[in-house]
Amino acid sequence: MKHIGLFILDSKPEVYHEPGLESLTISQLRNLAAEDGIDLGKAKTKAEIIAAFNEAMG
What we know:
The chain is α+β, with helices and mostly antiparallel strands. The chain has helices at about 25-35, 45-55; strands at about 1-5, 5-10. The chain has a two-stranded antiparallel ribbon with strand order 1-2. A hairpin with a 2-residue loop joins strand 1 (about 1-5) and strand 2 (about 5-10). The protein is globular. The model has no long low-confidence stretch (mean pLDDT about 75).
């Protein structure tokens, strides 16, 4: 396992497995991305931001 920020990833590092990610607000997701150095690109919706987290881990 690899620990990144507040989230723990299993053997598939391209996918966040933290169930709480969906429960965060867009603002909280943006702050977390900034803290973890994840480029959100043009992501605006919650689904797009979560997809950006998954892409960053790939």
